[in-house]
Design a protein that fits this description.
The chain contains nine helices and five strands, in the order H-H-E-H-E-E-H-H-H-E-E-H-H-H. The protein has helices at 2-15, 22-34, 63-80, 102-106, 111-114, 121-134, 162-175, 202-211, 222-236, and strands at residues 52-58, 83-86, 94-99, 139-145, 148-157. Strand 4 and strand 5 (148-157) form a beta hairpin.
Length: 240
């Protein structure tokens, strides 16, 4: 089924017509991958290209929510070239935790699960405080070994309207690929802070292709990534 969904994702990507400038793509990639200009440790993080990423879904959710997650996994696999697949076994690299309400996460009712992805109670409490301050309705956490991403969890609430849940799945699974920072409001992206998009946009797909292009490497600095990204741009979209 995932192979069929991947083919559908590729077909839709090929049907989309370009409408962005190269500068828009480069600036958005810089922000989504590296965060604010003054952020410490501005290095690139991504999953190793030779690793199979396994995903396990937990919690009760409508069948369509799980289908949306499977479709997003297929799309991300097509865009990044990573081997991403679902599993029912323990030890998955990524957990998609469907929760009745995101407030249950904020209230600490999923700390036993979240604690597997944070180094300490204080780090967990800081993470939850950040979610509250941002008014988050869904969220995730991704960890790395060095600059290689290695494990992640995303929390998807099932009490939200379908478009919101769909947007959470699209955005949070994309963020844990190595684009963890929100874009400014108004950007045509599912990763924007005020995004109305329930699906990945042209800009999102361009950033993911750029992140996993063979010339882009985990660990490179922001300035070096900008140089590489500029060289990649003509290969992932037509010239302006």
């Amino acid at each position: 089924m995932l192979a069929a969904l991947s083919a559908q994702a590729q077909a839709q990507d090929q049907a989309d017509s370009p409408s962005l400038t190269g500068t828009q793509v480069l600036d958005a990639f810089d922000t989504a991958a590296f965060g604010p200009a003054d952020r410490p440790d501005p290095h690139l993080y991504r999953w190793p290209s030779d690793t199979q990423v396994t995903v396990r879904m937990t919690g009760d959710a409508p069948a369509r929510f799980r289908q949306w997650a499977e479709a997003q996994i297929a799309r991300l696999s097509a865009l990044t070239g990573l081997r991403i697949g679902t599993t029912q076994g323990i030890g998955a690299d990524v957990i998609i935790a469907f929760v009745p309400q995101f407030d249950a996460v904020l209230d600490g009712r999923y700390n036993d699960l979240l604690d597997r992805f944070v180094a300490s109670d204080s780090r967990r409490d800081s993470l939850l405080a950040g979610y509250r301050a941002a008014g988050a309705v869904c969220a995730g956490q991704v960890n790395a070994r060095g600059t290689d991403l290695a494990e992640a969890i995303v929390f998807i609430p099932t009490d939200r309207m379908a478009p919101v849940a769909h947007a959470c799945i699209a955005a949070q699974l994309s963020r844990i690929m190595g684009l963890p920072f929100a874009l400014p409001g108004g950007q045509p992206s599912a990763l924007a802070s005020d995004s109305p998009h329930a699906h990945l946009t042209e800009l999102d797909r361009a950033m993911l292709r750029m992140l996993y292009h063979p010339r882009m490497r985990a660990g490179i600095t922001r300035s070096d990534a900008r140089i590489v990204a500029r060289s990649i741009l003509p290969e992932i979209r037509p010239a302006d």
